Amino acid sequence: MNPDVQARLERLKLTPIDGQALKKLIEAGLTWLRANQQMVNALNVFPVPDGDTGTNMVLTMQSAYNEIDHLGHRGIGQMAAAVSQGALMGARGNSGVILSQLWRGFARALQNHEILDGPALVQAFANARDTAYKGVVRPVEGTILTVAKDAAAAAAQALAETDDPREILARVVIEADASVQRTPELLPVLKQAGVVDAGGKGLYFILEGMLRFVHGEPLDMPTATVQPLSAMNMENAIDSIEPGQDYEVVVDFVPRETLDLQKFYGELEKIGTSIQVGEGEGMYRMHIHVPNEKRYEPIDFVMSLGTITKIAMENLLAQMEGIDHKASGARIELANIEPGQIAVVAASPGAGISRVFASLGVAAIVEGGQTMNPSTKDFLDAFENLPTEKVIILPNNKNIILAAQQAKDVTVKKVYVVPSRSIPQGLAAMMHLNPDGETEAVAAKMTKAIEDVTTIEITTATRSVDIDGVSVEQGQVIALVNGKLAISAATVEKACLGALAHAHADDYELITLFHGEGLPTTETNRIVDVIRTAYPAQEIELQDGGQPHYQFIISIE
Amino acid sequence: MSKETTTLGTIHISPNALATIAYHATLTSYGVVDLAPKNLAEGITTTLTREPAHGVAVHYNGEEIDIDVHIIIEYGTRITSVAASVANAVRYQVEKALGMPVHNVNVHVQSLHVSDSE
Questions:
Q1: Which of A57, A67, A89, A94 would best serve as a mutation to test chain B binding (most B beta carbons within 10 A)?
Q2: What's the number of domains chain B is made of?
Q3: Using an 8 Å Cβ cutoff, are A370 and A320 in contact?
Q4: Which of A92, A137, A140 comes nearest B34 by C-beta?
Q5: Smallest CA–CA separation between B93 and chain A, in Å?
Q6: Is there a domain that residue B2 lies in?
Q7: What residues in B contact A91, CB-CB < 8 Å?
Q8: How confident is the model at residue B45 (pLDDT cuts 50, 70, 90)?
Q9: Looking at the structure, do residues A358 and A265 belong to the same domain, yes or no?
Q10: Mutation to test the B interface, candidates A56, A137, A485, most B Cβ within 10 Å
Q11: CA–CA separation, A492 and A496 (whole Å)
């Protein structure tokens, strides 16, 4: 340990924990949670990609921190009360609400304290637990509540041996970790999906971040722990490419001896950045970004540790160019709206789909889909400046309908939400748009039209799970018919054919396929040919949708 | 929507059956301390009988299912977040059990419950 850190630690041991120290701890908890946000998000239980527990908890903690950021010297009680207030105001999602209740209980226990000593900390943990449990009649165990309960118990136990709050926090973090690992035993749905509880894990990261701050450990890089293979998020890693890192290297391997993770990470950090390590089925997967001249180093290094089973190397610059190219793709011509006409605002997950919507007369596009739901503000921004008072919104995803409805509630414009839950439903509704009609009647007609279309969505399962009587292995292709899991299959082709049969496509006339990004053109054409052969009586259309995550979105009318 | 025709005959699902699912989904939602009677008459009925799903109303509106839940929320939680979670939980659990889409879930916050008097 370097002398600076050593000296800081000594100073810390002697300083009492006052309001300013709590502020630092909250900031550390927030920073560490944010560093591990994607990992918490990846712990979602359902086989479609849309988890956001990590994001909700980060936003809640951020709001708590914003409340105290500008505060000067305060007693611990006042500072904690401000944290509680901020968390309450920013509480997002279920996990965020529970987190805000934990802070509320925590703050209440400290309200007449100036500094935080051991007994006060233990009392605060106990009170946090009690307050959180009061918020629900039938607490579900195996969640963030259980982790809070176990943490409080560990704090009480630690008090018998020490009254140093830092030592108590250390014991709490150890127990919180163990408690998170136990959540699948308490909650069957977690066990079925092979994950731990996301909210509990988030709480653990907040506590661990505080402890890391006390120990003077870095907070800005994600934890050196292995994650389940399914939680590895390679796509997001591409967003954060550092200059000079030209190659992405992914190596699967079986180590000869138990892997010393800290050391393993340490060695990798000398070679490159964006390091992720995943574990599953007796093997490990290592992901790293490296400069051109070092591209073989990670492979040599891993080879010295065990047997390599698979290597993948990709030129990041080429990928980046691909991304830039996509962004600057052909411009989308939106419909021009005259005052008095009806303007339609549609949510769209991909450039191709946006173009189709535009060609049908949509006046504004809000980007968003399954994994990135647009906010109420995004909708307001889209239509507030249009030169008309009449607006119809097509959310095109069931998770977006609420944001659209909220936009309707806050604006002075006359807004109708046509509750389309998929792209095909949105397109079917557009067929009935009459921009010069009476808004309510047009919206009613469009709403009726969304029932006439069947939607199939093809995607890859992000984890193994049993839902709706369908058994899905991680990595399998699954098909959702009208939002409900219908079949799982080994290939995209089989999933398409199975889903079309499931939806009785031969009773309909037109099958339109929107292919997503990431599916090669030759493969797309081959699958469409297979479908043409299988459904000779139906008209088959292929469109470039450009949506992420879904290989195909299919509309049957 | 409450009726499905199979080769053997039809399956009817009563609003009460759906209400029970919605009731349990609501009670396990964080921030909800109880469900509230919709009106005075229901309040009296609830005390006389042991209806399994008080505070929940299910309407079949042609082909559409609408669900209204009337809840009491713990004082000190963010009401909009709790209500949104309830709507999500009810929709998810009912759709999972039923295999059909739910059109609307309306959440009515009837009152707040203060656990501790400070």
A1: A94
A2: 1
A3: no
A4: A137
A5: 11
A6: no
A7: 77-78, 81
A8: low
A9: no
A10: A137
A11: 6
Q: Would residue B118 count as lying in a domain?
A: no
Chain A residues with CB under 8 Å of B71 CB are none
Banded pLDDT at A99 (limits 50, 70, 90) = very high
Phi, psi of A172 (to 5 degrees): -60, -40
How far apart CA A294 and CA A297 sit, in angstroms, is: 5
- Nearest C-alpha neighbor of A46 from the set A185, A230, A228: A230
CB-CB under 8 Å, A483 with B30: no
**Which positions 315-334 of A are in contact with B (Cβ < 8 Å)?**
none
On whether residue B6 sits in a domain, the answer given is no
Q: What six digits make up the tokens of A335?
A: 């419909």
Measured between beta carbons, the chain B residues lying within 8 angstroms of A140 are 28
Single residue among A221, A255, A273 that ends a domain in this structure: A221
At a CB cut-off of 8 Å and minimum separation 6, what does A160 contact? none
Say whether residue A101 is in contact with chain B using an 8 A CB cutoff.
Answer: yes
Q: Please give, one letter per residue, the 3-state secondary structure of A8-61.
A: HHHHHHHCCECHHHHHHHHHHHHHHHHHCHHHHHCCCCCCCCCCCHHHHHHHHH
Q: Out of A108, A137, A468, whose CB is closest to B33?
A: A137
Cβ of A267: how many Cβ atoms within 10 Å?
Answer: 16
Number of domains observed in the structure of chain A? 4
Buried b (16+ CB within 10 A) or exposed e, A333-363: ebbebeeebbbbbbbbbbbbbbbbbbebbbb
Q: In this structure, is residue B7 part of a structural domain?
A: no
Q: Is the pLDDT of residue B71 over 90?
A: yes
A307 and A387 belong to one structural domain: no
Could A451 and B115 be called an inter-chain contact, meaning their C-beta atoms sit closer than 8 Å? Answer: no
- Rounded to an integer, the average pLDDT of A510-532 is 84
Residues A112 and A166 in one domain: yes
CA distance A342 to A434: 8
Check whether residue A460 and residue A446 sit in a common domain.
no
In this complex, is the C-beta atom of B2 within 8 Å of any C-beta atom belonging to chain A? no
Please tell me the pTM assigned to this model.
0.53
Q: Are A153 and A175 in contact (CB under 8 A)?
A: yes
CB contact under 8 A, A94 and B76: no
Chain B residue whose CA is closest to A89:
B78
A23 and A7 within one domain: yes
Cβ–Cβ contacts within 10 Å for residue A153, how many? 16
Which chain A residues are Cβ-neighbours of B84 within 8 angstroms?
Answer: 93, 402
Q: What is the pLDDT of residues A149-177, one digit of tens each?
A: 999 999 999 999 988 899 999 999 999 99
Per-residue DSSP letters for A205-236? Answer: HHHHHHHHHHHT---SS--S--EEGGG--HHH
Question: Is residue B61 less than 8 Å (CB to CB) from chain A?
Answer: no
